[in-house]
Amino acid sequence: VYANWGWGFHSNDARGAVQSRDPRTGAPNMRVDPLVRAKGAELGIRSVARGRFHGTLTGWLLDIASELVFVGDAGTTEPSRPSRRLGFEWANVYTPARWLNLDADVSYSKARFRGPDPTGERIPGAIEGVVSAGATAQGAGRLSGSLRLRYFGPRPLTEDNRVRSKGSSTLNARLACRLTRRYSLALQGFNVRSAKVSDIDYYYASRLPGEPVEGIEDIHTHPLEPFTLRASLVASF
User: Fold this and answer.
1) Which among 46, 74, 40 is positioned nearest to 60, based on CA atoms?
2) 164-211 per-position pLDDT tens digit
3) DSSP state, 28?
4) What's the first-to-final CA gap in the chain, in angstroms?
5) Percent of the chain with pLDDT over 90
6) Cβ of 114: how many Cβ atoms within 10 Å?
7) CA–CA separation, 133 vs 187, rounded Å?
8) 12: how many CB neighbours lie within 10 A of its CB?
9) CA dist 17 to 33, 77, 190, Å?
C-alpha cells in the first residue's frame, strides 16, 4: 500500500508555448506559459503476491491552477479556469508462460472546472475512460510479436456537455525477427481493422464559401489513418 502527495507544475498542451505567430493573420502573438502550479495526491495498492500476476489499483486527484484550452477559430491555446481531475487506474500484467505476457490497463477520470460559470464545468477534450490491453510473445527463438488494443471513451467537446465525441477502438500489431545479435527486422501494422474513427475532435464555428458570415458550429475531426504497414531495421549497440 502506498500514498503520495505534493506540489509541482503541470501542462496539458504545449502548442501555445511554441506558437509565435497567429495562424489566421501571421502576426506575432504572445506565447502561453505552459507550466502552472498543480497539487496532486494518490493512494494505491500493488500486489506481487503471485509470481505470474502483478496488479496495481490507484486512486488519484490533481488540482491545476489553469487549464490550457484549444481555441478553434484562432488555432492556438489560451489559459482558462482552474480545474480538478480525479479518477482511478487499474494496471495488470499476467505471465501464463515464460514466453507470453498479457497486460490490461483500465482508467477513468472526472475532469471539471472549479468555480461556477454559466458556460458549464466540463473541460473540452478531457477523456473519461481509457482501456489498453495486449499480448506479447517473446520466445527463445528469433521471432517475437505483439497485439495491442486501445479504446478511448466518449468525451465532452463543450463546457456544458451538450456536444460529445464518439468513442474509438484501434488494433495494432507487431512482428519482429532477430537477424543477428545486433540487428533485427520488424513489421508493424497500425489500425489493423482500418477502423473509421477520429484521432481527435473539436467543436467550434467555422465558415466555408457560401456559408453565413458568422460561420456554423460543428465538430471538426482529424481522422485516424487507415490500415498502415511499416517495416523497420533496428540496430542495437
Assistant:
1) 40
2) 999 999 999 999 999 998 999 999 999 999 999 998 899 988 888 999
3) B
4) 38
5) 66
6) 14
7) 20
8) 19
9) 6, 9, 30
